[in-house]
Structure formats: structure tokens, C-alpha cells
Amino acid sequence: MKLTVIGSAALDSIETPAASRKDILGGSSLYASISASFFSPVNLISVVGGDFPARYLRLLEKKKIGLSGLEIKEGRTFRWKARYDKDLAHARTLKTELNVFEGFRPLIPKTISRRDNLLLANIDPELQSYIFHRIKPEGIVACDTMNLWIETRRKELLKLLKKVDIFLLNDAEARQISGEKNLLNAARFLSSKGAKMIVIKKGEHGSLFFSKGLSFMAPAYMVKKVSDPTGAGDTFAGALLGYLTGTKKMSSRILRAALVYGSIMASFSVERFSAEGLLRVTPANIRKRYEHIKKLTEF
Amino acid sequence: MKLTVIGSAALDSIETPAASRKDILGGSSLYASISASFFSPVNLISVVGGDFPARYLRLLEKKKIGLSGLEIKEGRTFRWKARYDKDLAHARTLKTELNVFEGFRPLIPKTISRRDNLLLANIDPELQSYIFHRIKPEGIVACDTMNLWIETRRKELLKLLKKVDIFLLNDAEARQISGEKNLLNAARFLSSKGAKMIVIKKGEHGSLFFSKGLSFMAPAYMVKKVSDPTGAGDTFAGALLGYLTGTKKMSSRILRAALVYGSIMASFSVERFSAEGLLRVTPANIRKRYEHIKKLTEF
Fold first, then answer.
1. Which residues of B touch A226 (CB under 8 A)?
2. What is the pairing mode between strands A166-170 and A141-144?
3. Is A249 on the interface with B (CB under 8 A)?
4. Which of A76, B31, B90, B226 is the most exposed, fewest CB within 10 Å of its CB?
5. Among B244, B243, B252, which Cα is nearest to B286's?
6. Are A191 and A210 in contact (CB under 8 A)?
7. Which of B205, B240, B299 to mutate to test the interface with A (most CBs of A within 10 A)?
8. DSSP class of residue B34?
9. Do A129 and A103 contact (CB within 8 A), yes or no?
10. A292 in reach of chain B (CB within 8 A)
11. What is the dihedral sign for C-alpha B57, B63, B66, B69?
């Protein structure tokens, strides 16, 4: 079984108080694919422009990510420019250029089976929905989102969340979509809208998993230094779905491990800019942090 | 073995967006004593004025808290007036009246043994230090503090933390005392100053325990509704020390359980104003939340 990942592929320009980097590998589908590739085979569906550096494509190929669904279109790659505040807690978007994503309607290559699992990584819910209906997936489907879509595509998003198995969003977004301050109430709101399984990502405070009520609280793995939080949520979602795909089944035990692997992969991601942290990780590093966090949280 | 608790005894006036209450039972030593009393015998050392309601004394007696060290002094009880913001995350102190605490130097009653454990609940480090040197404790000693003392009694506090076994503070205070944003670095700073065991309380995000490096991450117990966060940290410290006193020894397993009981008791405390949440708890309620959080966090 494989995992199909759709979402954005971008060139990010990121400023933090410590450093600033231009046109680095970014986008929800790339973070998620690289993260998932440690656990299962991955096929990517996305689009880049002719200016997308070949060396980035080679990095994805090295991770054995299937690129037959990655369209290379005439024009410029999607770009996102942002600045983080001094706590690295909030990114302020300085500029978004949709570029080749404007009106993008991908073809689904034959290598992608409806029986594969599907991660609708963060992108316009209209595009997520389009892909969902083209693939007619029979595997596990997860959908991630962001504040922008809650604001501008609320109706589409509420329609989509009924159809998927796992709906992911962060704590601020859970509060935003529900109008509830308390996360238990926010999750109850999402359930009432038809969400089956809900993952609320709390960044450095871990994540909450709901399936008919709160059923697991996953810890975050603490790192000594955060360099760039970009893509942490995408990385988390990629590892979660990658792990579920790799194990080929879904029990409470497997789901819990998948969420913890989400935390672990996110911890590697934030330690360096772009996907550099993820790209230098080895399976042994991942295993070590998993065992460590298990020891740190058992009682 | 018993636990001796010293700290403030107060009449609080609390305003939250939902309600406001005047002259309710408060103070670090009262929250901590009531919380600890579920796990071990407790002796209290503190002071109140003649205006302290007899019904509050009866509540403490009902919990079998030894009151021979509670001085009833002519004058008014210590008072604290505060208003919480809409997230209930930050309290703004509107008024503090030291009253009978001004220059308070308690006598140590004979019922208190130096072999008992000792909790120096949050109060001026000069008073904590005075008590420490009068008792010359041979049991486990823990010391809690707050932002005010870090600001105004830094030197005294840094002297005291070397002498105690467990030093407690919250995340904001750990950042304040160390000048480090990252809590792992903040704890390393405190270790370098001679702290042996460190507990960083993160409120709704649980707590971190350090003993030569990070060694346990305790989850918080999520509640549906927070009414009044006052005393949550004192309640946490009380349960931690109460549990350690009740079990009569200290292993890694016992320490971890003690920290989780800290979270549990704090969850009961914040659900109602003052100590009302704690006072209506039963050992069965406590056990139930402990089992529940264990199930919610195992992987």
C-alpha cells in the first residue's frame, strides 16, 4: 500500500530573528511527502514552475517519492514569504504568490490507486475536494488545513471534513472554526459537523486525538533549539499518514504510535530551515527519539 | 511521616469574565495543605487575622490539617485582589495587603518534627529561608515561588534553591529567572545554580521534571471548563509533596505518579472558585482521573 500526498509545493523565503533564507524548499505536500517517506512509499500530486530547482527534485527522488503526479508547468513556482516574531510562535505572511497554482487542476497518473491512502495536505479546500472526487479513495483519507481556508473557504471545508477519516488542524484553528476557546468543546463542535477522527496539533505542546471524544494525548518532543517552525504541521501529518500506511492497518495502538511519530518528525523538522532537518534524519535517529519520549512520558 | 506546609493564608477577591467573588479562602499554604491532605497528614504553619472566618478554619480541620502552627494574630488577614483576562491565562493583581504577614516570624510548634517533609509554598523567600533554618529539615524539602520574588528577592531565592531538594516554578518564571526562552536551557541554568530536582509547571500543558536533565514530562488533565485558575500551582505542589510523604519513599516511579497527581488535583482546583473544587473531591474521583489520564497518554 502507498500514500498519495497532494498539497502545495513552494519556494519559501523565511525570516527569523536569527537568520533569513530565500527560495528554499517548502510547501505542505513536500514537507509531508518527505516526512511520510520514512514510513511508506509515497506518490506526490502537486505542481511547480519551470524555475523549481532541479536539485530539489533530486532530493525528492532520493527519498523515492513518486513524482509522476508532480506537474512542471510553465511559469513561476508558488512562493510564500514570511517573517517569524521573536518567539518563533507566529509567522506573519509578507507575500503569497499563487503563480502556477492559480486554477491548477491536476491529472491523476495511473500509478495512483484509489486503494492507496490519501493525505490532502494543506491547500485550498476546493482543490482538496477536486482531488478527492477524482480519486474516489477507498483507503484512509486525512485532510489538513489552515486559518486562511477557515476564513475564506469555510463552507467548502465543512463539506469536506464529513467525507474524510481524519481531520487535522492546529489549536488556534480549532478555536477559530468552532468559536470555542476550550479544545474539548472545539472538538465536540467538529464532531457535530461530521468529523470522524480529529487531530488538534498544539505545536510544542503535543497533539490531541479525538474519536468519539478525547482518546489520546500525544506529547511533543522537546528540542534544544528551534530554527524554523515552517512545515512542522505538514511534517506531523505526513508522518502520521505514512506510519498508518506502512503498518497497513489502524488500531488504537498503531494510531497512538503514528501520532507520536508525527511529533518526532516535526521535532527534526523545526531544528533546521526548510526540510533540511528531515533530509538528514536516519531511521535510527527516529527510533531513538521515539524510545526517548516513551521513557520521558511513562508513569 | 507528615508534611509540613508553610506559605500564605489569604482572603482573595477574584474577578473573572464570568463571575466575581470577595474574600474567599486563598493563599498558597491553604491550597497546598488541602491538596496534600488527600495523600498524607499535614501540619500547617501560617498566620491569619482575627477576621479570618471560623468556617474556613473548620474546613481545614475537617481535612485533618494540623493547625497548631496557624497563628491567629490581631489584625487583618493577608488579602489579594486580582482580575483575570478573558482567556483566564493571566491574573492582574489589583491590590495586595500583607497585613498580619508584615514581619511575620512564626514559632514552630512541637508537633512539627524535623524528620517530616517540608513544603515551602509560595511566599517571600526570606520567610521560607527563616523557616528552613528554624526547622533544619531532614526530610524532603520543596520550594515553590512566583514572579514577584524572582524580581524582588532574586539573591535570597538563588541561595535557597541550593538547599532544597525540589525547586518548583512555572514556565514563565523559569524563563524570567534564567533569561532563557527554551525551557531545557532554563532548567540547565537552574541546575548550574545548584538546584537538584526542578519542576517546571506549564499549567494546562502539564509539567516537566528535571533531575540531571529532563527526566519526565507529566501531562495535564484537561477540564471542560476553567472557572478560577487561582491556586493551581499551589495545589499541584501540595499534591506532589503529599503523595511523596504518603508513600514514604522516592523512586522514579513514585515521583512520576506524584507529578501526575499534582496535575489531577490542579484540574479539580481550577474547575471552581477558591478551594471549592478541592473540598468536594473524593479519593475515588482522584483515582478515576488518574486512571483516565493514564489511558489517555499511554502508547
1. 182
2. parallel
3. no
4. B90
5. B243
6. yes
7. B299
8. H
9. no
10. no
11. negative
